[in-house]
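Hi V.,

Quick status before I head out on leave. The structure for the redesign project is tokenized and pasted below; the design run finished overnight.
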């Protein structure tokens, strides 16, 4: 976290730049502002920067964020372009959040944190199958999952909590894209629309059983990606079809591959067994395009004298040539990282569940800023985010440097 850059020597960019932004402040300077001219007392970049700084220092409510900035008027004025004698109140933060372009904010943040990836196979020279087989060791794993912003629920006003659909890069640990959900039952449609706007070459996209639909699989493949989907009760026929070849021990006339893994720790012994087969590929192809293999994953957890076993079935467009059973087992297990690395840290460590803002798109904007904070922490290798926030609270200059200089 140490830096050789003197904060007094950092030059604040004047507005947006036509060049690719090099700092997070420049990214925030490019977010479109929908407010009328008379209402623009504070620049969008200033308001969003103060939100980030206060949240990085441990605040999560708008009232606390407002007070955090107002307790440091000279510091803010010395280091940020503040054109007025006063600092924003809580309502001003909410008004600005409600008036900016949310989709543009999410896109700019995703582009800023995205790793620079060299495309080894130009799309105009290769088919989807060639792209999928080109560089299996560099396959990126993205996970799609919806999340309820619980703090936006107001029982006294009978308001439903807002929700967002996030696409998370497990390898680079940043949110590739995030979309607001219109309400319960809209996640499938939102996911389809999101996938159709993405370049998925070299990407394995995992999703929960809600998205185990032929249309979703076709959309992922059309965009050049591969999919990994779980079959549960919502696809009972598919679930039964996949379970059938694994209902008996391996037979010579039904070729399959397998892998096993054993882990011990935290007072438990965990055994995993993966079986994969290509025998259903032709049978499923009419409804499920480009099936590469189906699988069964069994997990047995032993704690003392008590044991539990869970069996999961699924399919993937990755062929055995591209991914081994052991690696496929790792992909299935890695899916749950989105809960631990993204959702849990936003809900608990960053206080998203405790923030009771419920109106407009402010909850969605605050969630996007939380994504940015987590991406910064992961890029810097922070292992204890709560402890790091306490450090930022004592030394806000350290947090400001991260927004005003390249990370």
């Amino acid at each position: 976290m140490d830096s050789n850059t003197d904060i007094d020597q950092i030059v604040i960019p004047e507005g947006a730049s036509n060049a690719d932004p090099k700092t997070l402040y420049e990214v925030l300077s490019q977010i479109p502002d929908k407010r009328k001219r008379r209402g623009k007392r504070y620049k969008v970049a200033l308001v969003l920067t103060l939100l980030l700084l206060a949240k990085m220092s441990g605040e999560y409510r708008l009232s606390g964020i407002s007070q955090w900035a107002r307790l440091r008027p000279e510091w803010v004025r010395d280091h940020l372009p503040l054109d007025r004698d006063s600092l924003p109140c809580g309502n001003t933060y909410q008004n600005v959040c409600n008036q900016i372009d949310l989709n543009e904010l999410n896109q700019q943040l995703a582009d800023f944190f995205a790793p620079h990836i060299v495309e080894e196979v130009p799309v105009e020279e290769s088919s989807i199958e060639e792209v999928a087989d080109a560089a299996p060791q560099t396959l990126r794993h993205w996970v799609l999952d919806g999340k309820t912003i619980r703090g936006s629920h107001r029982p006294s006003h009978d308001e439903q909590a807002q929700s967002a659909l996030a696409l998370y890069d497990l390898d680079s640990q940043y949110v590739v894209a995030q979309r607001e959900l219109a309400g319960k039952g809209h996640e499938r449609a939102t996911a389809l629309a999101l996938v159709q706007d993405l370049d998925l070459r070299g990407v394995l996209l995992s999703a929960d059983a809600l998205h185990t639909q032929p249309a979703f699989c076709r959309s992922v493949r059309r965009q050049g990606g591969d999919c990994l989907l779980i079959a549960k009760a919502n696809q009972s026929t598919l679930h039964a079809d996949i379970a059938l070849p694994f209902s008996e021990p391996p037979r010579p006339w039904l070729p399959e591959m397998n892998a096993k893994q054993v882990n011990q720790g935290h007072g438990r012994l965990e055994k995993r067994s993966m079986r994969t087969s290509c025998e259903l590929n032709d049978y499923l192809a009419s409804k499920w395009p480009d099936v590469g293999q189906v699988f069964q994953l069994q997990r047995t957890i032993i704690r003392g004298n008590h044991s539990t076993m869970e069996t999961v079935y699924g399919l993937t467009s990755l062929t055995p040539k591209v991914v081994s059973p052991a690696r496929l087992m790792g992909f299935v297990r890695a899916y749950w990282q989105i809960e631990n690395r993204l959702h849990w840290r936003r809900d608990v460590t960053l206080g998203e569940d405790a923030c009771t803002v419920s109106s407009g798109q402010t909850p969605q904007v605050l969630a996007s800023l939380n994504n940015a904070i987590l991406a910064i922490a992961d890029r810097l290798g922070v292992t204890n985010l709560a402890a790091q926030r306490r450090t930022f609270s004592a030394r806000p200059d350290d947090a400001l440097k991260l927004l005003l200089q390249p990370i």
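Above is the designed sequence. Residues 219 and 380 are 35 Å apart (CA to CA).

G. will cover questions while I'm gone.

Best,
W.
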